[in-house]
């Protein structure tokens, strides 16, 4: 009778074979048939390969479960092939051929198999009987005195947590409330990832989100309780679905030291009753690690410490990996210890405080209280006896494996030999996995640095550079970071930017760092540990807790124990400072931090150091650019009039737009100023080029015009003297187009103007009837010839007339091969009849901006003057 079924279809692609293998493996493991998974996966792989690769058709895979067997059917859509005959072995394929081995393997591995043909497809099926599992003891430990049994609470609590298909908590039982301090209402609807402390290096292991999608999963991680403390737990996950078909994951959690309540014991192959066959030679690595072995380094190391602990019946186990120079050991995996805060911590091998002197040879410590500090990892853990052995590859120290117990005198040389034998079997696999991880990290580091360099080179804005520095480090390199900047050698470091991967903690972290003295700006390269934030956070949390209990000063209105403890947890791990050095000067510090009980691994610190060098140069470039921009903008403002005077009887409006991101000084300018009672001077000009030389001519022109006009010189005399002054600048001189005029408002409502147009676009006059005409004649520009014979033209603006003056940035506005030109400007001006001077200027600017889609490439200045009409 069929009790369960699962089906899937795979496209005729090469990668479908791997997908089919995963489908069958997950299905059988979900059904609890791990004993036959390997044979089923091998057979499925061969049959699906025949279908999708050799036959070139889609493959349908159907898994059927009965009470005592599993049947798997693989169908393709190519039925016209030759039917294999049992009497003709050649048709079943040769083992040396790429294809055709599927039927041979079925004959060798399956209990029953066959081939069925229909008009639309061909089906190969095989059946694997389930082995009989003897009833009786599955796993047992020695009888222990009561004082050596694990200590628990009043009763062992098993937290039952259900996770919905979106990863959010949907059920939370009373034991979970007791273990972690949250009531169900506080956690329901929130992602489990908000509370889980997942023990893996990013990018190199399965994450908790991935684990929750598996049909079954079992292992260790941590849960942050309501006080921010990480509680190590052992978990068993089972993926289920409800009657509506919606999947969810049921998680059973116990404290890690009570893992025996949930941990599934290892099952070895059960021989058939009465079988007397010769046992197959077992691979020592597979015997110790189990099959299949984890593919990633973290999984392999964690499996190693768990197997080592179980093999010697220990309370804890740990594994450290050596650095390339064999001078330090880095903690990479542990089990049974109070916390995982030592992960990635380093201890010296040969000399120095806290040295790990027993790394190179097997060692048994019968009582650590007699030799305190012999194994730094076990300080303050309650472990009394320990056995440690080295991991070596070709005589080189690659790591150290240890098993510890809470009772003294638990281990002897016999256990050391057993552990050393296991270590020798796994050392090469561990080193190979470590080298593979290092290669992946190095490739990732190169990609990271290339991307970081591109991002940092893409901006010269100081604030954006600070933000990029922080965003590139969090969460890739650290949980939180802070950037201190130093304006000059006499200035103190200033906290410029703070970022945490949890945005809700940024304000608390910023407030904490503001109360802590900044780190010393030491130019020494490399990361150095900074304990001030962690110490300050813990002190603040302690004071807040005491006030909350009524043991200290009353709590302030804004203080909350939850916020304080959250901040303490956020900065409770390792904090390091990297100097930002550019052009032989410390311009700031980059601070990276981890949450409680976490350390940085050396590869991450080396990557952060590379990043800090690039970031320092980018930050200094942004500083220099900002200083230059401030000077440029200040000079630009000084070259333009601070304000326009009110001219009686005349409306005046000016619009000035500098082109380009830098808005360099120079270029166009304008001015309107009183000469004497009843007389006003106005000018609009354009200096050739930009930069300091153009700015010098601009400043010279604007100030000379005011000075000469107020001395009583007429328009031609003013421009002739200005021309001489420009030529006196020599090589620094620039030619200048200039429209200069004098304006006299009249009692009858009109205005008299005297204008000199020296090489500048001609001013346009708009009459009340809508006609537009040039209002002056062109004359030579300034800064080219010594002797100029300029003359002025006198015209009258009647009530309602408008005089429009622009620079060539307006008339030369381009869109491809089209240019606005004088005619286009005149056409726009004809639509401005009856508008005020401000409205005229605004309409002209809108027309210029809409003429082309690209940003303007030249400065633009618009000066509009209007004599109000009689109806205004």
TrEMBL record:
GO molecular function: phosphatase activity
Domain PAS: 160-190
GO biological process, one term: regulation of DNA-templated transcription
CDD domains (alphabetical): HATPase_RsbW-like, PAS
Superkingdom: Bacteria
PROSITE patterns: PAS
Keywords: Hydrolase
Pfam families (alphabetical): GAF, GAF_3, HATPase_c_2, PAS, SpoIIE
NCBIfam families registered for this protein in UniProt: sensory_box
Protein name, entry field: Regulatory protein
